[in-house]
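Troubleshooting entry. The earlier prediction with magnesium ion gave an output that would not parse, so I re-checked the input for stray whitespace and re-submitted. Clean input:
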Amino acid sequence: MDDVRRVLKQFWGFDSFRPLQEQSIRTILEGRDSLTVLPTGAGKSICFQAPALCNGLHGNKGSGAGDLAVVVSPLISLMKDQVDALKQKGIAAAFVNSTQDETEKRDVADRIRQGDLRLLYLAPERLLSPKTLGFLRQQQCVRYFAIDEAHCVSQWGHDFRPEYQELKTLKQVFPDAFVHAFTATASEPVRRDIARQLGLSEPSFLVGSFDRPNLTYRMMRAGQKMQQIMDVANRHRGESGIVYCLSRREVDTTTQALRTLGLRAKPYHAGMTGPQRKANQDSFMQGRCDIMVATIAFGMGIDKPDIRFVIHAGMPKSVEHYQQESGRAGRDGLDSECVLLHSPRDFQVWKDIMHGEGGQVALQSLQAMFELCNGITCRHKAIVEYFGQDYGVMRCGACDVCLGELELHDDSADISRTVLS
Ligand code: ADP
Ligand code: MG
């Protein structure tokens, strides 16, 4: 068996790659900057984790660089989950962040000196601190940098983080190391902007299909909203799911309502303390509670493979957000359901929240999301085409439109007039 497949089998137990994973891994092994775009749940982590375990990497080029992969990840919670999962597989991975004391940090530094660490997770601001940069340079240990959630580097993306922009210094400070970016945001201008912002040199662009065939999309007008949510949750009794609400208040009332049905639901929003949020997230991840009722503060990088349903209690502010959030369902490839409840008001609510911020791009995304909800085109087709790809299937068999469930409302003409004015 060749090295790449051996690593996949030995550490992850998988027999085959998902689309583009193998190309992405081989590009890293070849030593060429790259940008891999795959939808949420497609399996981007393995693309930057596996190469660090392949022998091919060590014999690769006589550049003097070492064999450590540095993963840049925006959230501390996300880092810990990924590193814990890697350690469980027997992979030498670690992170350094503000939750650790000096001894723990020194420990990681020692392991880097001794060369027995394969993957190091850091937030951008820590990586770019003069101390960390100096240390990594002196050790000559870095083979490549993997920038996860790389759309954060682009002001045109949907989650811009200023600290990500400083990552362009990596190519200057480490001329021998390669930089590989990963994101689920597909639009072509954002892709090019990411490559430019990171200073990638002749990058290989790997862009996957944006369709998630195992997800059934249903987008319906909110009526008796609580009842609609309870109906969906009830038919998934005992299964894992997420309910996204637009406000903290709605999170609390929805959690209560689901509990009265005897469903194991817990809340998650920014108004709770850190430890409360963490306790609820852990309980969801470990299957002690089934339903996470949350604001969009919940979920980035959440890797729970068996989420069977995602309900949106209101319209998200962009198709990108919808793709990310609904995409958390069905990561294991099994059939899952995504239900979006929207009301004509949602558009105006978002417009008021955005008020000037984000400008034209944000408004266009909002408009596109509105059209997706109110449209009568196959949902799979509409989403895939939004991301600039062709959708060849005639009837997906997995959305309310193609399944003939759509209810038309007489006032839809009025709504679009309001929106467009
Ligand atoms: P992304 O970062 O693209 O959203 P993740 O890296 O979190 O996705 O992976 C999503 C899920 O897919 C994980 O549960 C992972 O174990 C699983 N997965 C990844 N690659 C494969 C594969 N080749 N075969 C089966 N499952 C896979
Ligand atoms: Mg990811």
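This one parsed fine. The two ends are 61 Å apart (CA to CA).
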